[in-house]
Design a protein that fits this description.
Elements lengths: L3 H11 L12 H15 L7 H10 L11 H11 L9 H12 L12 H10 L4 H15 L5 H15 L15 H12 L2 H16 L2
Length: about 210
């Protein structure tokens, strides 16, 4: 059961920090990972749901210092937050920090614990429109000079590197629905006409916001 004090702390002091991040990593994303991790926890009764919730809430905080090492910074911020000692032991804090660090899809190692695997799986958020929109939002924020065709070329490159068969994305929780959604998205990627049409729709909606 979730401790209401911990939940209130996270919603008051941690989640609002996501408002300063890029459009694809704001508080709606934090809430998605927090909620999805709790859903997946039902398959692992030995998991401490409070620890999982904290790891999920902190997992992308490090974006405040840039994307490249954000997972490492997130872990550091969790470890250094002495307020968490009110509810957790130093050993538990280390486990949560490792989980926050291990969430990154391009990580060079597997998540070290079940907490890391659940957070990583929850962070995947495999939905075609969401993936395309978040990639567009990132490109607009970091490469504002690119035109629509250049945006599309960059998106295709990213899709091939991460989501296509042989890409670096890995799934960790067999009970998750991500595998089926990834298969459906890969099918769309193999249809260049349908994928371009989907991009056009999402792009038009994104730049109007």
């Amino acid at each position: 059961m979730i401790n209401p004090e911990i939940h209130q702390f996270l919603e008051t002091y941690i989640v609002p920090q996501y408002d300063a991040h890029d459009a694809g990593h704001r508080r709606d994303h934090a809430h998605y990972v927090m909620n999805e991790s709790q859903h997946l926890a039902q398959y692992y009764p030995d998991v401490d749901r409070n620890m999982l919730l904290v790891a999920a809430a902190y997992h992308d905080l490090g974006l405040c210092e840039g994307r490249e090492l954000h997972h490492v910074v997130s872990a550091r911020m969790l470890r250094e937050d002495e307020r968490l000692l009110r509810w957790f032991s130093p050993e538990q804090i280390d486990v949560m920090a490792d989980a926050a660090e291990d969430h990154r899809a391009s990580s060079d190692h597997e998540p070290r614990t079940i907490y890391g695997r659940i957070i990583a799986e929850s962070d995947r958020q495999i939905d075609g429109d969401t993936i395309i929109r978040r990639t567009i939002q990132f490109t607009l924020a970091n490469y504002p000079g690119l035109g629509e065709e250049e945006q599309y070329a960059r998106l295709l490159e990213h899709m091939d590197e991460k989501y296509a068969e042989g890409g670096y994305l890995r799934l960790w929780i067999p009970e998750s629905s991500n595998a089926d959604r990834l298969a459906a998205f890969r099918k769309l990627l193999k249809d260049p006409v349908a994928f371009r049409a989907r991009f056009n729709e999402v792009y038009a909606a994104t730049i109007k916001r």
